């Protein structure tokens, strides 16, 4: 789990980008921490953007990033204060989500509780954080299920597009056939339009 929080469990004023663990660091000290864990369906491309382009990029340059303690205090007064490469926890989550082009319609001044109102969230755990034990197998299963749903949506979308394309082709063939039929029907008469007899025949046929 990645976040912006304490770099040392006993120092609340020294913060930055951290890789959190349930059994050590801050959460080992605050072992009574309560948590809710949610899952949210994203595309494979969005997942890769979050993991590689955003989080890994920040992790590689974590010394350049600071904890936005002033911004965290300002949230209590419904104010937004911040600067580049400076986040508090919820602000960091909002940043990586938006950088991955995931539209959650989150407020500008973000708080942790704002995320529970996002459409499409699925709660998968609620309780003591130390008791959270979601196996890698279950995570893999969720990823496979989400990918399967995404693939099905893509397939259904492609199916609709194919049906529309086939309909357009059939319509074009019908129009072409109708045009050829009318031309074939009227061509012998149109050749004789220069004569009075031909004009009379054309009027009778049309």
Concise summary:
By secondary structure, the chain is an alpha+beta fold. The protein is built from six helices and six strands. The longest helix has 55 residues, at 136-190.
Strand arrangement in the largest pleated sheet: 1-2
Gap from first CA to last CA? 78 Å
Main sheet, how many strands, which sense, barrel?
2 strands, antiparallel
Parts with pLDDT < 50 across at least 5 consecutive residues: none
Shape: elongated
Proportion of beta-strand residues:
15-25%
Write down the Rg: 32 Å
Structural class: alpha+beta
Annotation, overall tally of beta strands: 6
The secondary-structure element order is: EEHEHEHEHEHH
Q: Percent helix among the residues? A: 40-55%
What integer is the average pLDDT? Answer: 81
How would you describe this structure to a colleague?
There is one protein chain. By secondary structure, this protein is α+β, with helices and mostly antiparallel strands. Helices cover 50% and strands 16% of the residues. It has a two-stranded antiparallel sheet. It has a two-stranded antiparallel ribbon with strand order 3-6. The protein has a two-stranded parallel sheet with strand order 4-5.
